[in-house]
Amino acid sequence: MLEEKEEREGEIVKIQSFAEDCGVDLVQGNVSGEMLLTTINVNRPGLLLAGFEDYFGESRIQVMGNAEYYYLTSCTKEERYKKIDTLFKRKIPCVILSKRVSPMEEMLEIARKYNVPLFQSNKLTSQLVNDLVTYLNRKLALSTTIHGVLIEVSGIGVLITGHSGMGKSETAMELIHRGHRLIADDNVIAKRIQDEIIGTSPDKIRHFMEIRGVGIIDVRSMFGVASVLKEKNIDLVIELQVWEKDIEYDRLGLDTKYEDILGIKIPKLTMPVMPGRNLAIVVEVAARNERLKKLGFNAVEQLLSNIKFDKEN
Length: 313
Fold this sequence. Notes:
Layout: E1 4-6, E2 11-14, H1 15-22, E3 25-28, E4 34-37, E5 42-43, H2 46-49, E6 61-64, H3 66-73, H4 77-88, E7 95-97, H5 105-114, E8 118-120, H6 125-139, E9 143-153, E10 156-161, H7 168-177, E11 181-193, E12 196-200, E13 208-211, E14 215-218, H8 219-223, E15 231-233, E16 236-242, E17 257-261, E18 264-273, H9 279-294, H10 299-312
Parallel strand pairs: 5-6, 6-7, 7-8, 10-16, 16-18
Antiparallel strand pairs: 1-9, 2-4, 3-8, 9-10, 9-11, 11-12, 12-15, 13-14, 17-18
Helix pairs in contact: 4-5, 7-9
């Protein structure tokens, strides 16, 4: 059984990371600060600026384009200040100006007053909103934390699980040495995005691994940028277990077992650990076999078909 921990609602993001991920520029705010995102919806604050304050989505990212800009320029300076103040005092996450709209002096002053990040984008308003919704869907997706190691092997995202001391990190290290890529060690953040499970690492421990007897290592510094990956679909779960002679392990792979992660069933293999067994090679073979299955080729089915053909002839 996987050890899972449900995450809190919403996500605290670094302002600098948000700007980089969304392709926007910070024009007012603390670049090392943070903001809380709680909804995938994005808002255009035109109605609020015009005086209709009911049903305003203050938890949403606010996007202002030409329509809002030209409306504000038609107001007197005093009216404009009051309207902008009404928007920024609502404890909104941030404001993004689309189409390279230049921030007004009042806007910069009020953003400082309420400590609300103000960004600027060169995208069209509709394109910016679409990109933000895509970003928020990924950032705020249903998530869980799994104890294990996630590594990309021959294009397949393999989640290696098992009790502490089973050799998960050592197996992953051998796979990295063989040219495969690390996504996360120890804590894997799994997110459900539509019908897929995407795995990534907590920011603070990304690229780091703990190897018993060696200590903490930085995989990217040691093996280069090609040895790590930020995120990857989880396509296969391999659980490492201590080999016991009384347990009958699957030798043919006739019955596919699954691990349920956030409501999605992921193919699962149970791999016995015994002295002298090269787990890295076995994991590599399992990943390649899973890739063939995704392409429509199943070795067991082909073998049974060959046997049936021989019997009939």
